[in-house]
Amino acid sequence: MYEAEEKLRQLLLKQPTAEMRRIIFWYDENQSFVEEVDAYELDGLRLIKVTDQNLIWTKYQIEKAYPEESFLLYFDTGRPYDLENPLIDIYLYGQEFKMDAMATLLDEIGMNDRDSEQFFKDHAIFFQNKRRQKEFRDLVVTEPDLTYEKLSLAMFCVLAGVKELSFSILCEKLFLERAQDTNLGWNQIEKFANASEFWVMAEHKYHYTEAEPNMKDFLMSIFVTKLSAEFEGKIPANWEEWDMQPKNNSVVFLNRWMTHTSGKNEYIVVADYVAELLRIDKFLKRKPLEFVGKSDSFREIDSYLSESIAGSLCETSIQFGYLEQLILSRRNTFWQEEFNGIYRLLLAAVRLLKGVSDWEKHADNSDLEFLWRSYQTHFFQVDQDYRHFYLEYDRLGNLSDVFHDLQDKIENFYRTGFLNSFSEKWSEAIGTQAKISLPGVLPQEAFYQNFVAPFVKEQKRIIVIVSDALRYEAALELTQELNDSHYYVVEPSVMAGVIPSYTALGMASLLPHDELVYNGKQILVDGQSSQGLENRSRILINKFGEGKANAFRASDILQATKAEMREAFVGGQVYYIYHDAIDATGDHAASEDRVFSAVEIAKQELRKLADKLVNHISAANLILTADHGFIYTRDSLQKVDKLTVKREESLANNRRFYLDHEEGQVEGMHTFEVTAVTKPKVFAHVPKGTMRLAISGSGDKFVHGGSLPQEMMIPVLKIKAERGRDTRKKVAIQLITEMNRITNIVTYLSFLQLQKVTHETLPRMVHAVFVDAEGNLITNEVIFQADSTSESPQERVMKEKFIFANKKYANMTEYYFIMKDAATGELLEKRQFTIDLFYVE
Q: Per the confidence metrics, is the pTM higher than 0.90?
């Protein structure tokens, strides 16, 4: 029921007797109820909408046609003076009903002055609609200091369907409609409000001053002004008509829109529309990366940058540090979510190529211990970057030709420049040695005595997780991920794996044992077969006793309930859990190219497994290790990469080794005594370098069994659950820009990450902003990640962009740069600045 309808009902109830007729005059000067009065249901009250054309008819109805009935006489005009009122005789014995919506509205919003009343009279057509009245009231009722401009803005917002009294949000909505060619809101503004008042606001807020303004031109002006600010005025001549002065508010407006989560999708639509009108692709052609990288207004900018960076990486001379920093700087830009995969690919590519370049500086060194240590501390990253590159390359579809060219270069540089070159030096360092001796490096068969036995001696429960083919580089990455959780403290180390580096021998070496024996078919651990889960479980039970030890599949634990886990682990002390995701994928020709995806799956499962063990059975100590690693290259091998050897008497073999009892050297191969096996004497013949043995059938990209660090550097992660504790420190950040005066609305500041990120030094997310003396923000808020692992300080420098609001800045007023830890709020730096920016009303 309408409010006016209800009031009329109440009025009728007050009549003294049923026989008394009512003649009710209702003058609705603002026409606020003209659209609803016809819908009223008022029993015993005839409605007549009185106009100049039906006055005589109205009088006839009241006095002749229905002389005993009541009437509601509705006028959409004000009450005339008595001498000018042709119905004055009836008015004198009738009564007037007043339902002044404007008076009520003025009272609700606290405005009763003549100027306010004049505003409502000037915009009477807008207030004829009750819905618009209510939405208008809701927008302004809590707003202090209601000015004529705010009242007009409220009307525009209602007509455009904007729920917040904000000119910038109103512009966002109207720009979106312009981009979608709908213009519904603008059409409503032109129909029910004074559109010229909108353009007055546009001039006041953004200095838009066209003689014949329109929404498309206004939109173009906002974007071009931001581009002009970012590119320091270096824009095409045909754009200059859109370049507004001063630029601050246009830049701040678009920056706010881009960082406002709820408006992200709308911005994308508008930016794509403007980019097409500006032909931004044509503007970007052949522009330097440093120039283009100053903006993130359009997706075409990131498309151009990514393609250009890929092209630069295909060239002979590469600025590794600059390109890496450029790629990292795009992580905090608007389009990063769309281009994140491409930038991860490019980051892996630039780091891989730099790693290969660094290796070439050491490629003349053939000392075995140096090669082992340098791979352990540095060159493992080349394998890691190779894996990261293909992870993204396989995920991304419809890549342009330049990325396929980059893939060719990555493959060539990785295989020829690093893997083959490193393996040749490794083989040269081994020479004719019958075993690999590395001072200070534990052999894999000493795993139990050195890592598990101490827990047994102290009567502490220990859970060993063995992940098949978890390579050292992936294990280090998992170490960082576990440490970053602030839930674990992980201490990584390495062992020298058994040769040949294959599953049967690797798994047996990790079990508690006095001796390993090869019986011609399988590895026996103290006389017990070590093949399969049941046999390994029996070995543990024989060692520790029934109920004190056991072995499980990781897949079973991952699927087990909390109650099932508690029952499985009750009362025991030593447990081995076997995880198989990587080898299970790589060892099959049909799936070997998915091995890097399998590594990601393995890491996820291992994190989940650790969490489940800690949370469900309160495991405090875990050890994660592997049986062997692997080597993998994407492109198929040629005949020249394969070695043909007679091995009719071999005891076991795969593409990287064969076993027999022959001690003699074989051409093109290393011969090692399998020292992990105590009897009988067994020898492993391993191809030098990355060569594979020629075996019929497909599947030769993913292999293991040889002696390369990628195959036999065995990770050992000692994982301790530390609930709520994290004693590691984060990297320190320093503002290294020396200036203390701001003279440009778009200002770049440089920051130095003082330490590189390691497993002991954590990355830091940084929040930076400029504020006034009262703490009010005067720039955009910048969030960036300090996570560089580079040794070079120059490569740990970051440049971030700050956009200052268009306002009056006083030279004697205090303004501050504030830098905090984004996660904890810890204040990292506070520096006073003078702001000297030209302001135009």
A: no
